[in-house]
Amino acid sequence: MPTPVGNARACLAAEAAAALDGAVSVALRRAHAQTTSLHVVYALLLTSSSSYPSLAAGRGAGGGSHAPCSILGDALSRARSSVYSPGLQFKALELCFGVALDRQPSSSSNRQAVEEGGGGDEPPVSNSLMAAIKRSQASQRRNPETLYVYQQQQSPGAGGASSFSGAKVELQQLLLAILDDPVVSRVFGDAGFRSTDIKLAILRPPPPMLRFPRAAPCSPLFLCNFSARDGFETALTSRELVFPFPTAAAQLCSDGGGENCRRIGEILARKSSGRNPMLVGVGAGEAARDFAQVVERQNWAVLPPELHGIKLVSIEKEVAELSTGGCDQLAVGIRLEEMGKKAESPGAILNIGDLKRTVEGCAECNDKESCLVSEVTRLLEVHHGRLWVMGWSATYETYMKFLCKHPMLDKDWDLQLLPITSVRTGMGRSPTRPSSLMESFVPLGGFFPTAHESKGIFSSVCPSVFRYDNCEQEVSLTLSVDGQQNANLPFWLHKANMVRLNDGSYAAKAKDDQIVLNAKIMDLEKKWNDNSQCLHHGCQTTNTDDCAAVDRATNPSCISNMERACSGNGENPDDDQNQRGHGIPYPISVGTQKIIMASKRISLPSVLEPENEDLLLKLQVRPSKGEQLQREFFQSHQGDEHASPSSVTSVVTDLVLGTLREPLCNEENFVWQEQKDHSEDLSGCLPSMSADMVRKYGPDAAVESSSDEKSTHPLVLTHSFSQVSYGCASANNKTSLISSKARQKFDLGNYKSLCSSLINKVCQQEEAAIAAAQAIVHCKTGERRRGASLRGDVWLGFRGPDKIGKKRVAMALAETIYGIKENFVCIDLSYQDCVGHPSSICNQQDAIGNGLQCRGKMNVDHIATELSEKLRSVVFLENVDKADLLVQNSLSQAIRTGKFPDSHGREMGLNDAIFILTSAGTQGQNFSRRKDHSSFSEENILAASCWQMKIFLEPSPETAKLSFASTQKPRNDQVYEHSVFVSKRKLDISDDSMSAKRARTTSNVFLDLNLPVEDVEGHKDCSKSENSAAWMEDFLDLVDATVDFKPIDFDAFADSILKDINKIFLSNVGSDCVLEIDQKAMEEILAAAWSSEDRGALNNWFEQVLVRSSTELRCRHNPSSTHNILRLVACMDTFAQEHAPGVLLPSTIIID
Amino acid sequence: MPYQTRTLIVERSTTMGFGSSDDTATKGRKLLEILNVRMVGAGRRVLVLSHGFGTDQSAWNRVLPYFLRDYRVVLYDLVCAGCVNPDHFDFRRYTTLDAYVDDLLAVLDALGVDRCYFVGHSVSAMIGILAAIRRPLLFLKLILVGASPRFLNDGDYHGGFERDEIEEVFAAMEANYEAWVRGFAPLAVGADVPAAVREFSRTLFNMRPDISLFVSRTVFNSDLRGVLGLVRAPCVVIQTANDVSVPPSVAAYLKAHLGGRTTLELLHDEGHLPHLSAPASFVHVLHRALTTTQ
Question: Of the listed B50, B122, B222, B277, which one is catalytic?
Fold first, then answer.
């Protein structure tokens, strides 16, 4: 569909519109049906013919005004092939276009009109031409330099976005787009032009083409359009009309020769002190030579006016000879005398050259040198103001040596150090490069500025000033335009928008969480409909056949009933679920899907008939509107179900649980709280309960319980659903360890069981585990210390040593409360521990790649992401006391408001997470003191890496015994008797290791050996740690509970391990030899034992690796001798390539 | 060390960036505008964040929030940055780094900053070194990120680049800037952090190709080795694990030759732009570098 001319014209700027009008008139004259690109070009050729020589002659140079249309003419004249004579080629071009136009279809109506002599309708713009206009519009939008014009034009209007769409196409852009039109380029080709050449010529107008100031350079093209013109523009903006070409060429070689001379001149021209330049730097010699050249050639332009006419005398050679000893003192004296005479206005500079020569000089010439120096000093005093001295030195050190030799000389000579840092080493000075940059693609035609063109330069100053004023605007536009590819909006804006959207949904979701508790939702019905659609959709996409099969094969009413049950709870927090459903359909869809699966099971012979009645009785206590539906729901199943007396109690318990939540829901009555029954969020233990029931009664009971939960306490519906379904699924499949574990441990489902399960999982730190469990139960049963609103999030602080223990407790909590390990988020907030020992055993053990995830991310954002991704989780933040400012702020805000802001200010709902914040510091006692009398510190063990181990035969048992006696503690005597002990002796190897360790620690803080250590260490981080400590104190006041952890008794731990080793060693190697384990090796073993829960793997390692290597070693060396001492050491400079299975220890030990 | 105690006389003049110093104030204001200077934060101490080649002040965005409480942070764009009007890039003036130093000092003077901590990345580290030589009292401490006094190899000195390689790079930049950016950005960022690569590509691409090329030439023509000893301010050299532009030996060279008390901080993260690719650890190290007593 052709476009009306008016519409097309609206897209064009004045010049381009004029060109279009010309084209339309051509088309009209020829009675063509449409105005095409050919017409535009032809019209331009006609109007601009004045500017190309052959036709200009014929037509009389009437149109001498450098009309915009001559863009094409200019370009053509430069792009034409030199094979033909210009006249011929242009003639050919005109002919070709004429012929091409003749082939265009004509419109009968227009023809008639033309024949009648009247004007027909304007032939509409063809699709191809319109496409070209659109293309040029797009490419112009990408071009920042032209944008401000359009914004200017349209700024009173709606502003940015709309002005882009209304960008008016400049002729240049239009031409470029038209040249892409295959029809046009074919015609040009017929005439011997290549359209690419023409395009280049248009893009790269010769320098004087600046007379088209608005003809914007096309920035996305990087081929060739930088150098010349750009340099030219800069010349203009600096308001100096310099002959473009040499300047541009000089600009391109970015050596600082001129700049250096200027600086030297500046110093020389100073009135105040420090007026004798001393050039220092690798390029200093060069700069000095450059300067000498400038003075010699009297190129005063670079020097300040007062220095014009200055003279330079170099005694460089003499000074050099001075040092070699072969110098004639007299000659120097004479030169200096001359200097004194020369030192008249404007003055003279004495160049002493490279200081290196004087520094390197032998001792005997020192006299001569100092004589020379004092002479120069005298001269400087005498001819003050008219005599300068300058020198240079490639390095600062040389200069300092020179000063050492002649102290106070810098004052006497009034020296001014001038750092010279630019080196001119031929970079970009290759003569071809600048010129190739200049000349490439610029045909010589039109290259040299002519008189009439230089007029244009002046006129172009004005726009550039204009542009300058618009700088800011342009910068902002540039910002938004650059980088955008083809889209209307820049990529990152898209991104930002998307993020905003997400943000919105998060916010909405978070809001919902709050509203849900007290608001009535009026349009619930409608929402539910939407929701259920969504759910069904979810079902169908994820599990279509299952869903369908269930629907058909089993009890179909069940699902609908459940739906109604949900919708029935209009007044209840069930809305929560519905609303959540909008935000995050996933959990619900999963839930429903599982319900469907469950309902399949419901249809199986079931056991719950009498209990259902019980249930209903209980349910009637609840003031719920859903009650009725509930009853319906259960009644609908009663037919299928059979009685099972044994199940009564258990189900009743469940029901009690169900009703129990009621008061919690209202958040005022804590009727059952005292009984420490698990409640609201202990619904986390649902999987285990349901699993339990599954075990007892088969799958059906579990399902009943799920529906039970749902009906009685909709607030936790989402979670209990998914959890229950998980439980069901896993119990069914008999695959999930977790649920079976949980099943054993959560039978009672109360605080005690939580404690005991925790303790079972956490071998040590029972007290802490109990305290943590107590705190969580306490919080979850509803007593909130923060605010009046119901908040599901719990904040615990774990203080004290035992990094691994804290983590283990936290993981156990996550596992017992939520049933799956995935709900555990562990983030170490201290950069140090996260990255400081990247390969340490204790860090590697937690396979969750903390480092990988936080790569390129701030900790705040990392936490925020995790929070938004995981619905309910234990968020374990290690080393909160070392958290950075942003995390501190966000955490403070989160604990107060329940929203966690990320670094962009987006707020994440806490999703009822349990926050566990650890810090190594403790209140009151300082556990670190224990390090003093313990052989192993937690710090060292945490730092232990999986080093390669080496075992070798101790050459002389006596010395070993000796040193053992001196260093070992009595405690280890027994161990020694057991023939395995830990040595603290320093061997040469461990010396290495010590130095390696030192390097490790100092890699973070480099000590300056010139300073006392405490100077560096003592004040380290003082302000930060003060701030952090204060914050930490405040923060710990806010958390729900703090749990103190005890330090681990590593000595006892080591003893128990040694006992194990001893046992294995005795039985496998024999009692006649002693194994001595180096301290570091022991730390490595301890780290492995500590961080892994599995002692079996460790014992395996002892048997498989340690004992085997020992035996091999003994066999190799002198197997007959008795009472050998085998030493096991860690080679701290090499890391083990392979790990033994199940434990992070080397799979082989080097036998030496 | 006898000469460490000497007071040095170094160039004290502050040549204003634009023209004579008659109307210093207006020139200064104009310069602040041109270079998009911002001063943010609530602290007392002044922290200057100066971006490197191919970036602009937005490179500090991820680092900035951490310092707003304790510092007044000065942000500005180098004149070669993509978001400065290219018309202000005078090809005859910015032939040496000294012109950039002029700009920096003029900015600080215009803001009335009399002492500051300076964080400079890449070329800005060089600029900071030169500025600290010229105005020793202005800079309390220099934190040099990805800094190199000389990029080209030279005898025993291993700067990381051979001249031929550099010429090839320049040729590539000339031939197709966009392609060069696409290839160079991931290389420079080093670590596999797409966001950082994207961001660096954007700012690098924002630079006008000719300016970019010109600045690279200036940088590669600079040799600060001779003047490092003139620095009096304490310095912290932050060196990443794998920096395409700066080999570790260069950091050691800086530590050995810088005149002030110099410490070396090694970052385990990779790449030339740790403030983009590993902001968390970079912030940590930067914090330590700033707070460690001089």
Answer: B122
